[in-house]
Amino acid sequence: MYIRYEVADKIATITLDRPEVANVQNPALLEELDAAWTAAAADDEVVVIVLRAEGRHFSAGHDLKGGLGQSGDKTTLETIYAAESRRYLEYSLRWRNTPKPSIAAVQGRCIAGGLLLCWPCDLIVAAEDALFSDPVVLMGIGGVEYHGHTWELGARKAKEILFTGRPLTAEEAERTGMVNLVVPRNELDSRTREWASRIAEMPPFGLRQAKRAVNQTLDVQGFYAAIQSVFDIHQTGHGNALSVNGYPVLVGLDEMKNKIE
């Protein structure tokens, strides 16, 4: 089991529980995570969902050495596309559209695939030590699969983070509007719980309608279409890697690993 799931006081708490490897995401973790979100969405006792992580880091992203868990012996762009479409795009969009408010509590490193766990949440509370980054340009790919960068950061800041690979501090993320609140590390869970408890006392139908209104406004502005189209652009990076280096592509992996030391 890579996920812990608890419900108390109208709040479902989903905890990433691979602290020994900085909560990297193998297929089993993502499937358990999606099952937890589905359970929370279906539970009438749950009003608010909190996503948190055990250990020093929120998530160091995809488990690159573990692979995507595609079926069959042959890795092709078709198998990569199918696996990533399900686990990295469909899951994130489903979490984003879950009709209940959600809060991500982020500490330490949140790298690449870690963003597709916190970005679908409605609110983000970050510890002062939180660092957000997407260094996958080092691998010859233009950004993580759920490409929310422009919406979360604005165009120029998104390009800066992608082009340089440098991490965004919690304070910078708060200034861009990506993070709602920055708190001391030892207060992360308690402050997140305070917000969740306050929201949990609001009328559930009103919360659902408010979330739907904001999400649909973003969709009218092009969010959903952009996420879908940029996912296809992402796949050209895999296609190039297959033709040049084979797969999985671990070009730049050492540089990426150094970013969580």
TrEMBL record:
CDD domains in alphabetical order: crotonase-like
Domain of life, source organism: Bacteria
Specify one Pfam family.
Answer: ECH_1
InterPro entries linked to this entry = ClpP/crotonase-like_dom_sf, Enoyl-CoA_hydra/iso
* Alphabetized Gene3D superfamilies for the sequence: 2-enoyl-CoA Hydratase, Chain A, domain 1 (3.90.226.10)
Which NCBIfam families does this chain map to? Answer: PRK08290.1 (NF006140)
Q: Which family does it belong to?
A: Belongs to the enoyl-CoA hydratase/isomerase family.
Q: What is this protein called?
A: Enoyl-CoA hydratase
Q: What lineage does the source organism belong to?
A: Bacteria, Bacillati, Actinomycetota, Actinomycetes, Mycobacteriales
